[in-house]
Amino acid sequence: DYGFGDFWDNVRRTVNKPVCITEYGAPGYSNQESIEDAEEDQAFYDKGNWLDILGNSAGYQDGEGNSIGGIAFEWLDEWWKNYHPFEHDTKSGVTGPFPGGYYFEEWFGITGQGDGKHSPFLRHLKKAYFMYKKLWNQSFPSE
């Protein structure tokens, strides 16, 4: 949730090439807290990653200057990936470096499909979505 550690420095020292992070993010679900709190954790985690990507791009004094961007994983929750294709599964057998400590494969979207009752096309905008919206046109934020 604080970025990628010394990754940028390691890349600069070893290969000195530009870097694009092709997938980063955290699930907006936890079996240890409410959906609202899990979405807050997801937004905090994504923000830390994004600020690290931005802060290591060219033109920022404290970074390595080799970041050329990153791609949030992912835009929409995926209900079909694990176990039951018509349910938003809440099982996880895999631990990971995420809030709550588990990898919930179907919950990485910064938007969701609500509870699935109304339409598969319904979009629930999560807290991470609004965090990105706020940061999108700002210069490097201090928070």
Can you characterise this structure?
- The chain has a two-stranded parallel ribbon with strand order 1-2. Strands 3-4 form a two-stranded antiparallel ribbon.
- It has helices at residues 7-14, 35-55, 127-135, and strands at 19-24, 67-72, 111-112, 124-125.
- The mean pLDDT is 89.
- Helices cover 27% and strands 11% of the residues.
- It is an alpha+beta fold and 143 residues long.
| Uncertain residue segments | none
Terminal-residue CA separation: 13 Å
Mean pLDDT: 89
- Report the C-alpha radius of gyration, rounded: 16 Å
Number of beta-strand segments: 4
Query: What does the overall shape look like?
Result: elongated
Please render the helix and strand layout as text.
Elements (H helix, E strand, L loop, with lengths): L6 H8 L4 E6 L10 H21 L11 E6 L38 E2 L11 E2 L1 H9 L8
Parallel strand pairs: 1-2
Antiparallel strand pairs: 3-4
Helix pairs in contact: 2-3
Task: Give a brief rundown of this model.
By secondary structure, this protein is α+β, with helices and mostly antiparallel strands. It has helices at residues 7-14, 35-55, 127-135; strands at residues 19-24, 67-72, 111-112, 124-125.
Which structural traits does this protein have?
single chain; 143 residues; alpha+beta; two-stranded parallel ribbon; two-stranded antiparallel ribbon; 3 helices; 11% strand; elongated
